[in-house]
Design brief:
This protein has helices at about 10-25, 35-45, 60-70, 90-100, 115-125, 130-140, 160-170, 175-180, 185-200, 205-215, and strands at about 5, 30-35, 50-55, 80-85, 105-110, 130. The chain is α/β, with parallel strands linked by helices. It has a six-stranded parallel beta sheet with strand order 2-1-3-4-5-6, with helices on both faces.
Length: about 220
């Protein structure tokens, strides 16, 4: 049963999400927060499995709150909270910023209830989840990246590690990457771990962001 912290500055949305989760079998709401500061405090107190995080809130916004909640969690498999961003604004910039701080998924608030419940279960299981148009917008936005300083760890990646990182950026799970590259899933997992270590990344979501930011994922389309 995934425990969930609901974060939104609008009472009606917050209470509606809580009612939906309370009525659904297999979900437990451990708290509600109306802003980022309260979200950070309640996340520390209740230790939820998943945080449903709004982005635009007064004071500390959802991006900053997500970064603080996930701070210090170097291994995404350590049982710490996963953050699923929910917002009205399906923008490339919001998706990218959420990824950079370690969010595990991104959905717009008009997502049907059954898909939202499935999304919570997905990120709770350690996978990533994006609304189709959010992922499509992210890929389009970074398909032809502007000139930027190279990531300090990219030059340390082997050609195979770059291939794996590109496919991670395209949203493929390890099993599909293994099929694409004719590798074992265990080998793919090792490559992903080495990429994240060399690039000093704390989550697979951040690996997706880096792959898009530097144009690796676009080359695998």
């Amino acid at each position: 049963m995934p425990s969930v912290l609901v974060v939104d500055d609008q009472f009606l949305i917050r209470s509606g999400l809580t009612a939906l989760l309370t009525a659904a079998p297999g979900y437990e709401v451990v708290g509600e927060a109306c802003d980022g500061e309260e979200a950070v405090r309640l996340a520390a107190e209740t230790r939820p499995d998943v945080v449903l995080m709004d982005i635009r809130m007064p004071g500390t916004d959802g991006i900053a709150a997500t970064e603080r909640i996930l701070a210090g969690r170097r291994d995404p498999a350590d049982g710490g909270p996963k953050v699923l961003v929910l917002t009205t604004f399906d923008s490339d910039e919001h998706v990218f910023r959420a990824l950079r701080v370690g969010a595990s998924g991104f959905l717009v608030k008009d997502t049907p209830p059954e898909r939202l419940l499935a999304a919570i279960a997905t990120v709770h299981a350690g996978d990533m989840l994006f609304s189709p148009r959010a992922l499509r917008g992210l890929i389009d936005a970074y398909a032809a990246p502007a000139a930027r300083a190279p990531h300090p760890g990219l030059d340390t990646l082997t050609p195979r590690e770059r291939e794996v990182l590109a496919l991670v950026g395209a949203g493929l799970p390890n099993a599909e990457i293994a099929v694409r590259l004719v590798l074992s899933p265990a080998t793919v997992k090792t490559h992903v771990h080495r990429c994240m270590s060399k690039l000093a990344l704390s989550s697979r979501a951040q690996a997706v962001a880096v792959a898009h930011e530097f144009g690796l994922a676009a080359r695998m389309r």
